[in-house]
Amino acid sequence: MANTGLKLTMFFLFIITYEYWSSHVKLPALTNSSSSTHLIKDVFILAGQSNMAGRGGVIDRYWDGIIPPEVKPSPGKIFRLGGDLRWVDAHEPLHADIDINKTCGVGPGMAFANAVLRRYPVIGLVPCAIGGSGIEEWSRGGRLYELLTRRVGAAVKGGGVIRAVLWFQGERDTLNITNAELYQERLHTLFIDLRTDFKLPLLPVIQVALASGEGPYVETVRKAQQAINLPNVMTVDAKGLLLQPDGLHLSTNAQVQVGKMLAHAMLQSHYAR
Ligand SMILES: *[C@@H]1O[C@H](CO)[C@@H](O)[C@H](O)[C@H]1NC(C)=O
Ligand SMILES: *[C@@H]1O[C@H](CO)[C@@H](O)[C@H](O)[C@H]1NC(C)=O
Ligand SMILES: *[C@@H]1O[C@H](CO)[C@@H](O)[C@H](O)[C@H]1NC(C)=O
To answer: Going by CA atoms, what residue is nearest to atom 9 of ligand 2?
Structure first.
């Protein structure tokens, strides 16, 4: 009889402990494609060339590995779509398995994502930037446009919503006056084509006005960027931010600032949820 009482007591103790545990202990977030896909709600596309892919902290093909607090991972909250189209916890370099022919370092992506977490609690970043790419390669039908749409297709398959395109490109198009003069028209067409193909006519696009260029026509491309007149296309300006010794790539701290500027623009947008 006493034995039965003890068993019952143990049984209820177990139930109470279990109830407490299951209601108070948060299970760790799963970082696996199959298990985390359903969590991905708010998708941000990162596109452009090297300064979007991230060269912060890279000198002579070596990345120093320095991660400022704004760039730290937020496991279970910020994911990235890997080169294998699987979601994993995001950390810099976000483009390590995308811009594979270059040494990647810190870009604006993690600083952006950490700064918009209070509005978008589960973020899926889709890195697509490729170092040295000209805008022609990003035109509809071009190699990089196709890469981007394929990756974004995979990103939204699990029920995600595309929230914005973050665009940082044009340094390559400063090499050649013809390309610099064609930039505005090509950029305008690109933004329209992306919105058309994603069936999101007011999809926010936040572009970064150039801080540097590979050639002499930086001002021509900057003017083209600033002249884009489409609803809900926003521009933040990287001019004057600290560059690496190569004079072309933004330093880690400059990338943190770009990420914060992009986040500020996103949070200000009337179209943002
Ligand atoms: C990851 O997914 C595989 C199946 O794709 C599964 O077997 C494995 O248990 C998962 N791991 C975690 C940590 O969820
Ligand atoms: C990397 O370089 C190879 C060989 O030049 C090229 O075929 C490939 O497209 C490049 N990949 C990227 C992502 O730039
Ligand atoms: C600029 O690029 C175009 C197309 O690649 C080429 O036809 C033209 O000759 C180039 N112009 C100069 C000044 O290099």
So the answer is: 101
Bin 79: left if φ > 0, else alpha if -120 < ψ < 50, else beta.
beta
Q: Tell me whether residue 173 is one of the annotated catalytic residues.
A: no
- Of all protein residues, the one whose alpha carbon is nearest to atom 6 of ligand 3 is 178
Which pLDDT tens digit goes with each residue over 36-69?
Answer: 555 678 999 999 999 999 999 999 999 999 999 9
**How far, in Å, are 148, 151, 157 from residue 179 at the CA level?**
22, 27, 36
Tell which phi-psi region holds residue 58, choosing left (phi > 0), alpha (psi between -120 and 50) or beta: beta
Q: Which is it for the CA torsion 46, 52, 58, 62, positive or negative? A: positive
Nearest CA to ligand 3 atom 12: 176
Of the candidates 31, 45, 39, which has an alpha carbon nearest to the alpha carbon of residue 153? Answer: 45
Instruction: Tell me the one-letter amino acid at 13.
Output: L
pTM of the model as a whole: 0.84
What values do phi and psi take at 249, rounded to 5? -105, 140
Kindly report the CATH number that applies to the domain delimited by 33-268: 3.40.50.1110
Q: Is 212 considered catalytic here?
A: no
Write down the catalytic residue from 74, 99, 133, 249: 249
